Amino acid sequence: MKEINVISNICTNIPKQKVTEEPDSLAISTRQLVIQNGLDYLEGTGADLICELCISKGGSCCNGCDKLIEGVGCQSRNTSCTSWLCGFLKYLLYEAGLHQEWNSFWNQVPGKNYRMDNTPSLFVVRKMLKVQNLRFLSEALVADLKKIAANHPSKDYIITIREEIDRNLIHLRVWKNHPEKILLAQRNIQILTMEFHQFQKAITEYRKTVRQKYNNKSLIE
Question: Which of 13-17, 52-56, 107-111, 139-143 has the least mean pLDDT?
């Protein structure tokens, strides 16, 4: 359980910086500001809830990292680790229609590498992430995963699901010019997530809310 607390508080040693409430207003940003923006966004999605479950099943994404100290947390948070998403978080943003927005934001940030970066202190970022309130989606997803895990004797069963979802989401990007392969990846994702009943209810309600806001905005304009 110590590791869960470590990951949940992984940004403890990073000084807070205020992220502008106008996400389109910045042309120049700092390395620290984009990291904080990313961490705030992940908090808004409820990433800590998913991390806690995966860690309890032996699936910590930080396993083996020499920058992680037990009982203390991450000692060198970087743009690479902040921008990286596991299969479950990718899936959540994918279903919410926000995965491309996340990728587009981090595509602006130079110098990312595996568990490290050489991102400069100052660089151009023309659009910051607007923090979302999506913790209810993570709560629903975790509830489904706990139920699935309870019904399968293998401890790493949900980690296997996570990796398979991730692999097929990558295929959607890699195979974007191959419709038949896109359909195959989409079908695989549907099969892998067919037991995500609470999440499907939550994402359906979220989409209704988004459509309603869009329609109301169109009427005002």
Answer: 13-17
What is the pTM (predicted TM-score) of this model?
A: 0.84
Q: Cβ atoms within 10 A of the Cβ of 203, count?
A: 20
Q: Which domain holds residue 171?
A: 2-211
Instruction: Give the tokens for residue 79.
Output: 């743009």
**Domains in the chain, number:** 1
Whether 216 is covered by a domain: the verdict is: no
SS (H, E, C) 139-203: HHHHHHHHHHHHCCCCCCHHHHHHHHHHHHHHHHHHCCCCHHHHHHHHHHHHHHCCCCHHHHHHH
**Residue 18 included in any domain:** yes
Residue 220: inside a domain: no
Answer yes or no: is 133 within a domain: yes
